[in-house]
Design goal:
about 40% helix; six-stranded antiparallel β-sheet; alpha+beta; about 15% strand
Length: about 625
Amino acid sequence: MTAILALYNRTGAPVDRAVIERLLAAGRYRQSDGEDARFCENVVLAHQHQWITPEETGEHQPLHDRLTGCVITSDARLDNRETLRTSLGLPSDEPISDARVILEAYLRWGVDCLPKLEGAFAFALWDARDNRLFVARDRLGERSLCYAANADHVVVASEVSTVLAHPATQVTLNETKIADFLEGVWDYGEETCYQGVFFCRPAHGILFSADGVRTWRYWDIDPERRIRYRHHEEYVEHFRALFEEAVVCRLRTTGPVGATLSGGLDSTSVAAIAGSSLVERGESLKTFSYIFDELTTCDERAYITSVVAHCAHDATYVIGDDAWTLRDLPNWLTYRDYPGQDPTLWLVVALLEKAQANGCRVLLTGLGGDEIFLGGVLWATDALRELRFPGMLPDLLRYRTEVSWRSEVFDNGLRQLLPFPVRRAFRRRRPPAVQHPGLTPEFVERVGLRERHMAHRYNGRYTAPGQWQRYRGLIDGRSVMNITRIRQLGLRYQLEVVHPFLDRRLVEFSMAVPADELALPGQSKRLLRDAMVGVLPEEVRTRTDKTTLNPLFERGLLQHERATVWTLMQKPQIVERDYIRAEWLQKELEAGPEWTDRGSWLWDCLSLEIWLQRYG
């Protein structure tokens, strides 16, 4: 698996090998096991190898079917490969890679193979019989895929930087996506931060031919699906089975399996399930955690060591006190696909370096746990709609000091029961205000940000109370870009970073169960907590507080890197391009720990400035 590339000259002209070399050079950090290309007159497919699974070890993609002339380059981990092998009649006594399974599925079912593929994948397939290029991306966007197309050629790649390396691609910023990033309304669409370069959207397929393009969605969450049981324990049992499946199917690798481990519920649950499964195979899970000696409010070692002892993990610890934000800015890692950056980058890098040094090829995380249970904020909506609220009153009164009656019961309850057209009409009369306090009015008007805000908040397909809010929490463009950024970082260290909570089966389950099964006042992540009874130490399973890494952020921006920040913002492009008001930025830079929204708005501005100076 790893990076794929396809170049299709629609005019019929042969592909220039120098152009292919230029494109491959843009993503060369993703190949640790070599690269190969296959030229087919006016089409070339290429692959940069990192062999993670045993079935692909030694494989040299692109793969070619001699009978049909079809060629595939694929970045894939199929979770239902054995089922597909049986359906396709493929021999069970010889190693067959996931790329080969996808090719055989296409030869059997054509483009209708997509709904049959389960897991994470992005691929480009040239069908010589019909002279068309078929590309597709998995349901939740675990694999990245982007393209640029004009009358002369189509270029498809794993990263935006590779597409931009084509000499015919214009490097022009797309200001609407810049505004979306600053405002936090990054949508689930095709646009990238560059005009003319597009993402293949998750759960979509695209066919490119000499004279046309066809795009279609092959999967979406069914808004009408409901899972209803009589007893809470049945929901717990169902969730536990799906969760275990999501973890186990991500353990297929040639080397040791690692996991990032904090003291929170999400990563500890993933590690506990993974560790148990590996023990059955005679292996152990290697965990990697950061701890703090100086910034003690960031330290979670008491919870971490409790889990390590309880689950018998092979633990490695990294001291994180010196991993402050913007340390060593010249070597700060950024990616062209997306301006957003992690202020705790050096903590993540430290864990990746340790995992690589321990020989790991797969690294599990707890990312996605918050999204899976986010729908729990709408517990009152489902309880009121299904007439279960009266029966909940005794418990609610018992925990009345933990219930926000206005926000939880009225805003996220009664108001959600208003007919959808009424709520939409009300919003039209009162357009949502722009959230970012530093945006210039001219920029807001120039990109139509308020209108984009409206499109982000409502979708007529989801008419049931609360359904659109729950959908957006699970299927969100910013989450997809976060997955992409983390994966790109992991591949620098020959690691496949995977997130079991971001599994299609868990996402569908979360959308279909009552919101009050996901959470209740004082009971966040209710199903996960109950599923981990006996699996995690009680002090971790029942923990309700959260540790913040803000002191590390402040140590960087207010102490060690204060001069770095002021130098960076000496003549900021975000002001010169009329994105951010100069007076607001100056005030925010001087505010220190009194930043607006704990510095999140300022951090987005700093992230964008770094990105613009490097790529804009």
